[in-house]
Automatic annotation (TrEMBL):
Superkingdom classification of source: Bacteria
MF annotations from Gene Ontology: phosphorelay response regulator activity; phosphorelay sensor kinase activity; protein kinase activator activity
Pfam families noted in UniProt: CHASE2 (PF05226), HATPase_c (PF02518)
GO biological process: osmosensory signaling via phosphorelay pathway
Domain (Histidine kinase): residue spans on this chain: 517-726
Reaction catalyzed: ATP + protein L-histidine = ADP + protein N-phospho-L-histidine
Lineage, broadest ranks: Bacteria, Pseudomonadati, Pseudomonadota, Alphaproteobacteria, Caulobacterales
Protein's UniProt keywords contain Magnesium: no
The protein's Enzyme Commission number: 2.7.13.3
Protein name in UniProt: histidine kinase
Organism: Phenylobacterium glaciei
């Protein structure tokens, strides 16, 4: 619907809907591109990660520098000989790789011995210290001291950077020239490092195998004492690192509990070796998951009921969570549902608040509007709760509307004639008992034309105005229609009354026959008198003239009486009548009489069609009488002005002449039957005195009025006021 076709309340609803939609979309985009919901994202991720563990690789073993080893071998840092001793013990056991999670950045006199032990095994990997860069460099890496670096099978970084909530969920891959992650070096992986940019390192999710303690772990001291069987390390990847609480950081992991750095490296090595990767969805997918459910819910706000919207919002939240869980479990892709659910939880009450506020304002305005029309008291604010106050006012308004409806139903039921009420499409929405008796019991919901066809009318049944409806069974119904108007004067339906006019029509026919007989009996002698006068040339001319004048007056009286009687009693055949066309037709009819006196009709406002509901023949005769009077009493050579004006649903036709005018006493009785005013301009023939009475009768029966404004010597102005027809 176009905005112009909406009510003010509808336009406000749409405007606030757009505002909420835009703000919610902006909030979703902001939350997606920032760390506003990082903690909540992490909590959901940790829950899913804890449910998606896998068995730890038995080929990965941790040699732990634990509290027991420190107690036996001395406090940290240990001299190089301790590590040389460990490698010497491991060498004959032929491990697949030995990976140290211990930094050797400080030189030691025993470095050469350690280097020889490393070379003897041949597959020892050492970490590189990575620090913030100096002199413009993004990162600075410090290799192992002395000759350890050349003796190592490979060097790599072991950067651990917890998230904002202190939980380690990612490993770091830094751009060259920073070294490759140590686990990738051990496995010989050559996947390209990220390009240098604003951020020197890129975080990747770690697919943890399980909670702390998932990997087989032996004490450093136990290995040195030979307490571990030789085959225990054969073909295994051995990680050496600190687990003692007093010498290393313990990190929170998604799997729960504190996890040492060496165990974090074991998880990374295990996942890379097994080809298990976990990716984080890109920004585009995050935005799509956040915004699409939001706009589905926003569309529901415009089309669904509140209860349905609640179901829709809950369904969208569940669907979003299901999508996130499915992607994580099936494809190891992390797409957080938190932003979407948070936006849905924000928008639903927000829109509910705005919708409730708009409904409250609308109800308040309607109560104030209905207060005067229904005598309904508007809430006075004495009730503490606004909703309760408006609920009481609404209950009162509904009660009064119900009372009005019952009153209207009672009126309809009490009407003696068959009466139907239709909507704008001609569908019956109400009917009374006589209507059901006439047309049947299944009236409501039927089309009016279909119901009228049950009566078997002769000819087509009109649906406007008042007109007789002749039936094949000999009855005659008088069908009367009246329009129903809604807000703004828009047509909302019709009220149709069907009255049995059979007896009335019979009486009217008898009256018509009596009038015709009376007219014939009055006209025939007068016509004979006029004929005899024409055939008697020897009579005195003065006497002949007087006799002829009286005979013609009697004929005019008979015609006027018949017309007046028909105007008073005949059934109106109502139809839309173009008054502009009637005026033109009647002025043309009187043109010969006007030309005899060189009088001209001047028409004003008659260029466009202008309709009134009425009987065309009676209205035409009424205007003809007015024009005939104007011609009759106007001096020769003058103008008669006929003006048509529309105003406030009315049509006003004025006829102004420049005749002798009327006195105040004459104007009071000018529309009374048989009132005659002799004027020289009338040629000595004052007429029968029924012409203006006929005009008043016709206009009054059409729901209008006729007035006269005149003064002696200033002419006369007659105004006919009729209701306009759409």
């Amino acid at each position: 619907m176009s905005d112009t076709g909406r009510s003010p309340a509808g336009r406000r609803l749409l405007l606030e809907w757009l505002l909420v939609a835009v703000l919610a979309t902006a909030a979703a985009a902001l939350a997606t591109g920032s760390a506003l919901l990082a903690r909540a994202d992490g909590a959901v991720y940790d829950a899913l990660a804890g449910l998606s563990g896998r068995p730890a690789d038995p080929g990965v073993i941790i040699v732990a520098i634990d509290d027991r080893s420190l107690a036996e071998l001395g406090r940290w840092p240990w001299p190089r000989v301790r590590h040389t001793a460990l490698l010497n013990v491991l060498a004959p056991m032929k491990p697949k790789a030995v990976i140290y999670d211990v930094l050797f950045t400080e030189p030691d006199p025993a470095d050469s011995g350690l280097a020889k032990a490393m070379a003897a095994i041949g597959n020892v990997f050492l970490p590189v210290l990575v620090e913030p860069g100096l002199n413009g460099a993004s990162l600075n890496h410090v290799p192992p001291a002395g000759g350890l670096a050349p003796a190592a099978a490979g060097l790599g970084q072991v950067i651990i950077r917890p998230d904002l909530d202190g939980v380690v969920r990612h490993r770091e891959r830094c751009a060259a020239p920073a070294p490759r992650p140590l686990a990738e070096v051990v496995l010989g992986q050559t996947r390209p490092l990220p390009r240098a940019g604003a951020e020197p390192c890129v975080a990747e999710l770690i697919p943890f195998a399980g909670p702390p303690g998932a990997y087989r772990t032996v004490s450093y001291g136990s290995v040195l004492r030979g307490e571990v069987p030789a085959e225990f390390f054969t073909g295994k990847r051995v990680l050496v690192g600190a687990t003692a609480l007093g010498m290393t950081d313990h990190f929170q992991s998604p799997m729960g509990g504190g996890m040492s750095g060496v165990e974090l490296q074991a998880n990374i090595l295990d996942a890379l070796s097994a080809g298990v990767t976990r990716a984080e969805a890109g920004t585009t997918w995050k935005l799509a998951l956040a915004i699409l459910p939001l706009w589905v819910l926003m569309a529901g706000f415009l089309t669904l009921k509140p209860a349905q919207n609640l179901t829709l919002a809950a369904g969208l939240g569940v669907m979003t969570l299901a999508v996130s869980i499915s992607l994580f479990g099936l494809f190891q892709v992390w797409l957080s549902p938190v932003t979407t659910i948070a936006i849905l939880l924000l928008v639903f009450p927000l829109w509910g608040w705005r919708r409730l506020a708009m409904a409250s304002d609308y109800l308040k305005a309607e109560f104030e509007r209905l207060g005067g029309r229904l005598d309904a008291p508007v809430a006075n604010g004495l009730v503490a709760d606004v909703v309760e106050s408006q609920a009481r006012a609404l209950s009162g308004a509904i009660s009064r509307m119900d009372a009005l409806r019952r009153f209207a139903d009672d009126i309809l039921a009490s009407l003696p004639d068959a009466t139907l009420v239709t909507d704008a499409d001609g569908i019956v929405i109400q009917a009374n008992g006589p209507g059901e008796a006439l047309l049947g019991s299944d009236l409501v919901g039927a089309r009016l034309l279909d119901l009228l066809s049950r009566l078997e009318p002769i000819g087509e049944a009109g649906l406007t105005g008042t007109h007789p409806l002749a039936l094949r069974d000999g009855r005659t119904l008088l069908m009367m229609t009246a329009p129903l108007r809604g807000e703004g004067g828009v047509r909302a339906g019709e009220v149709i009354s069907l009255a049995d006019a059979t007896q009335l029509m019979a009486t009217a026919r008898q009256r018509e026959q009596a009038l015709q007989l009376l007219t014939h009996d009055m006209r025939s002698p007068q016509t004979s008198i006029l004929a005899m006068l024409q055939q008697s040339p020897g009579l005195e001319p003065t006497v002949v003239g007087r006799i002829a004048a009286n005979a013609r007056r009697t004929l005019a009286l008979a015609d006027g009486f018949v017309q007046f009687a028909r105007a008073e009693a005949s059934i109106l055949n109502r139809e839309p009548v173009d008054l502009s066309d009637v005026i033109a037709e009647m002025t043309d009819e009187l043109w010969p009489q006007a030309q005899q006196k060189k009088i001209e009709f001047v028409q004003q406002g008659c260029e466009e069609p202008c309709f009134a509901m009425g009987d065309r023949s009676l209205l035409s005769r009424a205007f003809a009488n007015l024009f005939q009077n104007a011609v009759k009493y106007s001096p020769a050579g003058e103008e008669i002005v006929v003006a048509l004006v529309r105003e406030d649903g009315r049509v006003r036709v004025s006829v102004t002449d420049r005749g002798p005018g009327l006195t105040a006493d004459e104007m009071e009785s000018v529309f009374e039957p048989f009132k005659r005013f002799a004027r020289p301009q009338a040629g000595g023939d004052p007429g029968a005195g029924l012409g203006l009475a006929f005009v008043r009768s016709v206009v009054t029966r059409h729901g209008g009025q006729v007035t006269c404004d005149s003064a002696p010597g200033e002419g006369a102005r007659f105004v006919v006021d009729l209701p306009e027809c759409d």
